[in-house]
Amino acid sequence: MKIVNRMLTTGLLFACSSVLFAQGELLVSRSSGKLVQDDSIELSQKIMSQSVYSRPASDLTKVDAQPEQNTGDQQAGIANRHDQYFEVYSADVQMLSDLDFDGYHHALNVNFDIDVNYESAAVYVKLFLSREGGPWSHYSTTDLFNIYSDDSGDEYEVETELLEGYPPGYYDILIEVYSLNHADMVTSQRLNYYYLGRDVMLEDLSWDKRAVYTEEYTELTVTHGGAGSASLFWLILVLLVAIAGRVAVTLTPKRL
Length: 256
Prior knowledge:
Blueprint (H helix, E strand, L loop, with lengths): L6 H16 L5 E8 L7 H7 L7 H4 L25 E11 L10 E10 L3 E12 L4 E6 L3 E4 L7 E9 L4 E11 L5 E7 L1 H4 L4 E2 L2 H19 L3 H25 L5
Antiparallel strand pairs: 1-7, 2-3, 3-7, 4-5, 4-6, 4-8, 8-9, 8-10
């Protein structure tokens, strides 16, 4: 059985992350999640349709909003027993969109497989980011989705584009899992260098674009100097005249 009871440790993680985020600034991102085997809607299309620029300002301040709870036939057959135990059996992250090729990406895809020890459950996930040991910032909450015991076919993924508020750095990712009929978080997993075996290097879109624009501006200034090249020509000419004049004075015979 793959399930490990980590209720005490995950509870402490959730308490700490909630307090730290309450003290932080509002960060802006946009996310889209789906079951891995669901190819009906491309994630990139959903991200564009959920652009933060087209949403009311009030929505951007909901940093800890609960997903809508589906009821009726949609959740039929889902147990949600209070004696269930949950585990993030596996998780990974893929880095996306590095415009300036500096190793820091402004988009990421987090995928995870959550198991439950008994029957099935309806769950949702909150995702957090922490830069180099700093406060945790909540950047995404999934919709409700179903998990079935240790079935690997219920793997879920969330693709996110970071827009503002995430300077370049090494980030940790925290996955917090909540069950529909459980009051508190049921399990969690931290993705960092020790778990993944590699660094998660991120920056937001404003940083990624800023570096590209700076590089293009520098290139244009150097290679298309125009008037600058003419000025350099005249400067060299003046120096040559000055050197020639000094040589001429040196070679002129002195009167006795």
